[in-house]
Automatic annotation (TrEMBL):
Residues 31-185 form the Transposase (putative) YhgA-like domain. This is Transposase (putative) YhgA-like domain-containing protein. GO terms for molecular function: double-stranded DNA endonuclease activity. It comes from the Bacteria. InterPro entries: Rpn/YhgA-like_nuclease (IPR051699), Transposase_31 (IPR006842). GO terms for biological process: DNA recombination. Pfam families: Transposase_31.
Length: 365
């Protein structure tokens, strides 16, 4: 059983979203991670605080940092959404011009050298969208990585170009993204950021733990933040953050998708957590009625895998049709159905560099 950082619209996941929609009075269902971000790091004062800590002073001075406002925009292309999500902020520059600060969350645990090309395509999408009156906005791209591997991908476009640029340097585009690694910054944030901001990073760290022992240790650090009720602005706010944090963990990590996780949350909150535990009981009962062993654990796990595979296949069929002018996709679809998720992800990550549909079939062998 592997750790999984993706979501699907399985029966269990639909129920989770309906539950979150009800207790948070949402007009539309939202994914656990999106809602968790919104209630923690996504709050404007917390994000301003975080950026002031994480970014160099000269970068902060380039913006009127208190002017940031989150938008609903996204510039991640469909093929990249399995591994990257983005949060886009409008931010006024020190000289009064318009600007954007974009945080790209890299979810894939395996570091890929070509991420710089993804960022380049991402920047093009923003520049093109914001182009008006013969100018476009300035953009600060930030990659936030929470995997366990060390980040070895080049941070500048010029680092992946072959040979000596020499005399054509001025004709060659180049840029660099700002990089933040969760495991390098998390302990530094202690005492410097609000409790909701720190809880976001602690929970994210626990969700990406490399083994069960580390997951338990990291989860206990998150619970310590929740137990200290005096540092929170209100009891209601604390309860909401704990609720969405625990459900986020259950939906993303193999180490937290059983009843014990929710019981720990109940013990942390003491009073007022009956709704959360009632919801857990309903989910587990539903899983048992369907013959799914361990209810919540197996329901979420299987739903995630099934939904992820379906999404990958649909994405690959679209791109195969467009890139290789494939008219009859039935044979390819049957072969993709037989493949495992790792193989499908490998094809997705490399399809733009393949020469023909035969290369796809070769990767499926």
């Amino acid at each position: 059983m592997g750790k999984n950082n993706n979501y699907s619209y399985s029966d269990v996941d639909d129920k989770i979203q309906s539950y979150l929609q009800k207790i948070f009075d949402l007009e539309e269902p939202e994914q656990p991670h999106d809602l968790f971000f919104k209630w923690t790091l996504g709050r404007k004062p917390t994000m301003v605080n975080f950026l002031e800590i994480a970014l160099p002073a000269e970068v902060i001075d380039h913006f009127k940092i208190n002017s940031i406002n989150r938008t609903n925009d996204s510039y991640v292309e469909e093929i990249m959404k399995e591994t990257i999500t983005d949060v886009v902020y409008e931010a006024e520059l020190a000289d009064g011009s318009e600007g954007n600060i974009c945080i790209l969350f890299e979810h894939k645990s395996t570091v890929k050298r070509r991420v710089i090309l993804k960022v380049m395509k991402y920047l093009y999408n923003i520049y093109n969208d914001k182009y008006k009156n013969q100018t476009t906005t300035q953009v600060l791209p930030i990659i936030f990585y929470h995997g366990q591997e060390n980040w070895t991908a080049p941070k500048k476009l010029s680092n992946i170009l072959e040979g000596d640029i020499g005399s054509i340097e001025k004709f060659t585009p180049d840029f660099e993204y700002f990089f933040i690694h969760l495991k390098e910054i998390i302990n530094y944030l202690e005492g410097k950021i609000s409790p909701e901001g720190l809880s976001y990073f602690r929970i994210l760290d626990a969700a990406n733990a490399e083994n069960e022992e580390a997951a338990d240790e990291k989860f206990q650090k998150a619970l310590d933040i929740f137990k200290d009720e005096e540092i929170w602005s209100s009891r209601e706010f604390l309860e909401r953050v704990v609720t969405v944090a625990i459900i986020y963990l259950a939906a993303t990590s193999e180490y937290f998708n059983d009843k014990n996780t929710f019981k720990l949350a109940q013990d942390t909150l003491h009073e007022g957590s009956e709704n959360l535990m009632t919801f857990v009981e309903e989910i587990m009962k539903e899983g048992e009625e369907k013959g799914i062993e361990k209810g919540l654990e197996r329901g979420i796990e299987r739903g995630i895998e099934k939904g992820k595979k379906k999404t990958l296949i649909e994405t690959l069929l679209v791109f195969a049709s467009d890139i290789f002018s494939l008219e009859d996709t039935e044979t390819l679809e049957n072969k993709l159905e037989e493949a495992d998720i790792d193989t499908l992800e490998n094809i997705r990550d490399n399809i733009l560099s393949l020469d023909s549909i035969n290369d796809v079939y070769d990767m499926l062998e």
